[in-house]
Amino acid sequence: MSVGGSTRIKKICTCGKKYLVRAELGGKRGKCKCGSVFTVPKHAAKPAARTKKCPWCSVKIEISRVSCQDCERRKMRTSLANRTLPAVEWKIASIAVTTAMLVLVCAIWQSYLNETHFFLLYGCFLALCFLGGILTRVIGFTRKLVMVIALGFIVVGAVRYSHDVTLGIQQFHGLRLMMVFGTIAIALAPFIDVLLGGIEKRSEESHLSNCSAAEWGNIRSGYSGPSITPGYGSHYVGTSGFMAGGCTSSSCGGCAG
Amino acid sequence: MELGAVIDGVDADALLEIPLVGLGFREPLADWILSMPEEIDCLELTAEHFFDHGEDLLEKLRDLYPLSVHGLGLSLGTPGAIDQETLNQFQRVADVANARWISEHIAFTKTEDVDLGHLNPVPLTRKSLKVLVDHARQVMDVCQRPLILENITSYLRLPEELLEADFINQLCQQAGAGLLLDVTNLYINSCNHRFDALEWLHRLEPSVIKQLHIVGYSYHDGVWHDRHCEPIQDELLELAAQVVSYAPVESIIIERDGVLPPVSELELELQRVEDVCETARCS
């Protein structure tokens, strides 16, 4: 008899009893302990999942696969043998180029760059666009744009500061802020897959909108050690005032004991 | 006499009865749960979440899954009368959900004047036993549904006249209730108070165990906690398998709270638990 759920059909009787039936018995009639007669479905239960996460986008994949199909396709596109970009890739690439051009124009306008600076900057942007193209294929759809924009401002900022060009920055605080946040974005780049992957998965797959870390942090701030963090510590959000302060999230469905 | 389940013309071995595997319902998971994923066989609703609202949702869920209703605030261990308003609300939720059974904790959460906000262990004495038995009977009388009672984690060792397993046996027998065995709570208590969980289990009357709760434990600063935030560890699954192998467990509920994992992880956990049950019942 095999075990592990891979070759069995699941059948739940109306009385609530659950049976696993060998797959070859699909279609036969059975009788529950409660006396109800049922027909065993012909289709086998879903094979037991042996899965892991795709290292690129965190989607669930079979354990034997290296990455998910989407990521594999993206990586395939990086090869010279297959350079045909689908519409969505063209769209991203055009946005990347436009962004780069906007940043370039903005920088020239502000800084009155001389010719050397201009070509240096232009070279940087070419590199940037190339990198953006790679990122388009290697990492996910949405996060690529964040990276391209962030890199754009980093490059502009680096060139300007290296040539002591501060004119314009004083007038354009927004640009300066973007440079700062761009730096932060770059610093977060190694984790962006986790951050965005989690957010996307929650919003797209399940609409999970949990308490934020800060909200739970607030709840737990009342803890003062094991005597107040008993096993039932985190689960009371109820009408009777369980849990000091309660969960402050409007989206939290609360917890159970 | 209960007849065994059979399939026409085939050996009894062909039909394997295993517990339903389900989740504690949490509102952020509602969309996923309403899509009826194959992994979920049943649901457990927390009564207090539906005291003031959610009747429509309850009705939807009732039509899709076998439901049970789990209480947090009846405070069965508090001497004196049960708060009537809370009990009435609890009963309303159980009725709307058409709960297969209802459950509460072997604990107290309030005194006459103060809502303590936590599940607190009752002293394992005959006096406490009587209080719990009376309250359990009252809840079953009002709700007209079977009641199962859950063991809790405790960081305190209170003076005791009875061993915990004996206390539970007597409670279930005298009240006519079942046991909701929280495998994680048992494991945590056994670690924090250094006793053998299996020995504890074997002292328990198997026939009273109707449902299991399971969720991963947390470990911090030398103390085990039940924060409902971790994936189920292997040792907990082994303990659950032990119970399922000999007790008439009808369902297993995974309790996740706090920062809920992606549904793909929950699906995997449900599948793992089902596999464990199948293996345990096969053996």
Blueprint of the fold:
The complex is a heterodimer of chains A (257) and B (283).
Chain A: E1 8-12, E2 18-22, E3 29-31, E4 37-39, E5 51-53, E6 60-62, H1 69-77, H2 87-111, H3 115-138, H4 141-162, H5 173-206, H6 213-220
Antiparallel strand pairs in A: 1-2, 3-4, 5-6
Helix pairs in contact in A: 2-3, 2-4, 3-4, 4-5
Chain B: E1 6-7, E2 15-18, E3 20-24, H1 30-34, E4 42-46, H2 55-64, E5 67-70, H3 84-97, E6 102-105, E7 108-110, E8 115-120, H4 126-143, E9 147-150, H5 164-175, E10 178-182, H6 183-192, H7 197-203, E11 209-214, E12 216-220, E13 223-230, H8 234-246, E14 251-254, H9 263-282
Parallel strand pairs in B: 3-4, 3-14, 4-5, 5-6, 6-9, 9-10, 10-11, 11-14
Antiparallel strand pairs in B: 7-8, 12-13
Helix pairs in contact in B: 4-5, 8-9
Give a structural overview.
The complex is a heterodimer of chains A (257) and B (283). Chain A has 257 residues and is mainly α. Chain A has a domain at 85-205. Chain A is 47% helix and 9% strand. Chain A has helices at residues 69-77, 87-111, 115-138, 141-162, 173-206, 213-220; strands at residues 8-12, 18-22, 29-31, 37-39, 51-53, 60-62. In chain A, the strands form three sheets. In chain A, strands 1-2 form a two-stranded antiparallel sheet. In chain A, α2 (87-111) packs antiparallel against α3, α2 packs parallel to α4 (141-162) and α4 (141-162) runs antiparallel to α5. The longest helix of chain A has 34 residues, at 173-206. Chain A is rod-shaped. The two termini of chain A are 37 Å apart. Chain B has 283 residues and is an alpha/beta fold. Chain B has a single domain, classed as Divalent-metal-dependent TIM barrel enzymes (TIM Barrel, Alpha-Beta Barrel). The mean pLDDT of chain B is 91. The chains are: A mainly alpha (257), B alpha/beta (283). At the A-B interface, β1, β2, β3 and α5 of A face β1, β2, α1, β4 and β8 of B. β3 (29-31) of chain A pairs antiparallel with β1 of chain B.
